[in-house]
Amino acid sequence: xxxxxxxxxxxxxxxxxxxxxxxxxMGVSTLALVAGPGWSSLPARxxxxxxxxxxxxxxxxxxxxxxxxxxxxYLAAGSLLLLVVLALFASEIAPQNPxxxxxxxxxxxxxxxxxxxxxxxxxxxxxxxEQGRDILSGIxxxxxxxxxxxxxxxxxxxxxxxxxxxxxxxxGGRTEAILMRLVDLQLSFPSILVALMLMAAFGRGLDKVxxxxxxxxxxxYARTVRGTALSEARKEYIDAARGLGLPVRRIIFxxxxxxxxxxxxxxxxxxxxxxxxxESSLSFLGVGVPITRPSLGLLIANGYDxxxxxxxxxxxxxxxxxxxxxxxxNLVGDRLRDTLNPRLRR
Amino acid sequence: MPDGAxxxxxxxxxxxKMHFPIYAGVLRRRVxxxxxxxxxxxxxREGETLGLVGESGCGKSTCGRAILRLYDLTEGSVKxxxxxxxxxxxxxxxxxxxxxxxxxQDPQASLNPRMTLAAIIGEPLDEHxxxxxxxxxxxxxxxxxAVGLNRDFxxxxxxEFSGGQRxxxxxxxxxxxxxxxxxxxxPIAALDVxxxxxxxxxxxxxxxxxxxTYLFISHDLSMVRHIADRVAVMYLGKxxxxxxxxxxYGEPRHPYTRALxxxxxxxxxxxxxxxxxxxLKGDVPSPANPPKGCNFCTRCPEVMDICxxxxxxxxxxxxxxxxxxxxxxxxxxxTAGQTAASEAAQSIQQGD
Lengths: 346, 352
Hints:
The complex is a heterodimer of chains A (346) and B (352).
Chain A (H helix, E strand, L loop, with lengths): L17 H17 L7 H18 L4 H4 L3 H18 L1 H4 L21 E2 L6 E2 L10 H37 L1 H16 L2 H12 L3 H28 L2 H8 L4 H37 L11 H9 L8 H28 L1 H4 L1
Antiparallel strand pairs in A: 1-2
Chain B lengths: L8 E16 L4 E17 L3 E5 L6 H8 L7 E6 L2 E2 L5 H7 L3 E4 L13 H12 L4 H14 L16 H13 L5 E5 L7 H18 L2 E6 L2 H7 L2 E6 L2 E7 H6 L4 H8 L6 H6 L40 E4 L2 E3 L16 H12 L1
Parallel strand pairs in B: 3-8, 3-9, 6-7, 7-8
Antiparallel strand pairs in B: 1-2, 1-4, 4-5, 9-10, 10-12, 11-12
Helix pairs in contact in B: 3-4, 3-5, 4-5, 5-6
């Protein structure tokens, strides 16, 4: 016991309250943004960004070097941070508010990248669409819509999945069988098809897109959580907790749940990218977000008609932005999985 | 053994059965059951260590866990410190938890990886006592001292420790509520040989200091010989022999015990060369479908006709020495003082 190394930053997840605090912080600011004062509240957005960075730092504490193992990791993390900042502060950064009709000029429609307004006050760096809206501004605002829809849908789907998965794993028997067959049924339909049908029934709208995305995704988490919970529940520390006479509630919340969540966090990062793609597909097909709140997918759809006439910028730049956000989330998610998965580490 | 017979039992197990159902098919119909523990009766006296040995899968771990009610028993009664817990409800059970604790086999898996050492050892205190924060910290430190863990380690996580240290954490957790009875489920099987002795010595020291009673489950016969006062041998869910340590190792009665003991390696090659190893043929039958008659009849080197028909009774063949084998017919053992254990064992046999 003499040769113990000096205290190092502890690795792995602790049961302390920090992650919950962070989650709460982000939840409150998300709620404020979604339901409350909306995007106009700057403090809420700053808080959300800080929460995002703190969560990343918490996940990676003591493992920074492992995560940043090469230029790709730096590039992906950097571009993800950049895109998140751009989306959060779109209203401050964008040269034009594409939602504000007073700022638009129909005469500036379909201008190629680099054109200026008639009075030369503003340059359309990525061109304009047929309504005279700045593509760059549209992308920034669209990024915000895409990201917020995807993140909210993923978080809620994950929460539902955790509840269902843990309940199924703990209850076992018939309850588990019924719940899991339901999950199988849900997963056997292509998610885009289910989402299309749901959107056809609901009609357009941000909230409806989020609901449709939750419905097609919760089952994925439920299955994953159940699997993890089953393997964790078989471990001796759960027996030990039962042997100590702890109530079921405490065993689940203090022992089972904290050990099921880390693998889920990793999955959810990659899943956010999938959700963005799914939402973009729905919007592209015209059943997603409302035209007044275009996401990246809707922007691509808007410019699609002009692709063959050589006015590529309306579709291509939103497409590049979509590619960038999805690729950086996927790369960061992959690095996170490699860094945090204990099975790959030992 | 002249001593102990008068001592009152702390734990008494009667006709313990633990059957696990097997479900199969699309409709998950119950098609049978694994008879992991199939009618086991014994007493553990206050302050003694009962060693429980047997090969893998014979039900010894299940037996230990069933006694602590980590499972819902199929049948049978378990009395600990005068309280019947075999079929007790959750509230009675919760009250009894501090009295009976367990040390697990895998020190890695038995500790929650997301909790610090202090949180792990302190958790039973949170649940069963109302200590203040300072009192709790003192108690945790006290327990860490008792098992030989440095107090500076309190805020570390289990993965930062070696196997032996982790097992000490597990022992400290088990001791937190001042238990009387501890089931040690192969506590040393996952440890290095060099660490095994340390942990066993720690368990012995704690027993002397705190007057603990152990059920020491192991497949390491030499270690059991070292630590146990009495030894029980299990085979395929049943107890085949129960005797004071010296009686069992000196004069094993049951053919299975003899085979088991002959397999213990002897360090001296000259003696080793002379030892006649009893090699058992065949495999252990499935506990889902045990043989008719004596469970050991399929592999017994001294099998007789009766063994395939009648399940032998678990009876006293010498003072304090019980075995379930037809080689020792009833007539030679009908002594005056039949103890409670053998009576109960008989009643179970009749009940079958």
